[in-house]
Amino acid sequence: MDFINQHQTHICDQLSTKGWVIIDNFLPKELIEQLARECRERDSAGNLEQAAVGRANARAVQQSIRGDKIQWLEHGMSAAIDSYLNSMSALRHMLNEQLFLGLESNENHFALYPPGAFYQRHLDRFRDNDSRTISSVLYLNEHWQADFGGELRLFDQDQAIDISPIANRLALFVSADIWHEVLPTKVQRLSLTGWFKRRT
Ligand SMILES: O=C(O)CCC(=O)C(=O)O
Ligand SMILES: [Fe+2]
Q1: Closest atom, ligand 1, to C-alpha of 68
Q2: The total number of structural domains that make up the chain
């Protein structure tokens, strides 16, 4: 896919040297608008559920750690979702070809942070399962303003890098290495979060 070829060198250089990369204007604008609309509609229809933290027996909703609501995606939910999932698969194939990561699958969900929500500093890799290899977050917020908060804060060594969740911005980072958090947002904040997974 052309849109991935266009960003290939930047993505691979940054991921392999720093462990994270930001790509702006990743997908067609109309697709981002459609995905944002769908996320809001799905929330209004009651399809998003409060996200939990931890795995298996330790799994629980803890809004003092994480305040977003999510819905996992599957092929066939809508044309826009199919298009997004196909793009992420194309990205996965590119990462495998260029960086030999052996990524076998992707999992993805909508995320909606209501006003006041945040996600405390964490790593995306679970202690008992190391299949999550590269994390991706695609933001869906048109007209985002700097004073809304809601930045993704990445920790690169000891340096904090704050990334505004503006529409059509994609963040990719190494799941096992990059500590990160979502700062409290003042307004509703929409995104698509995903993980490229290896076989374990
Ligand atoms: O939405 C973001 O910027 C990051 C979300 C996140 O860290 C997660 O869902 O694990
Ligand atoms: Fe995360």
Answers
A1: 9
A2: 1
